[in-house]
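pinned: reference chain
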Amino acid sequence: MNWPDAELNEIRSRGDLALYLQGLAQRLHDGELQSENLATADFVDAAGRWTKAMEGFFKNVVRQPVPEDPDWAMIAAIFRAAVVYE
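pinned: its structure tokens
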């Protein structure tokens, strides 16, 4: 998988995912990223809704079908999408 967000392409292990998520949280805390979802419940809901609707992202941005077997980078992409998905 070649993600449009270069950081996602570097995630290959559980440890990489953990570091990515910690960095994502820090960027949000520092104000480097704006979030549409300020509450935990909203964030989790956005992650679920984006996961359900990700076919459009794959069709229009990645230009590949959604992988049947997700990897660590896919999990990171779900978290990253939930930051901005309304």
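why pinned: Residues 6-84 form one domain. DSSP finds four helices and no strands in the chain.
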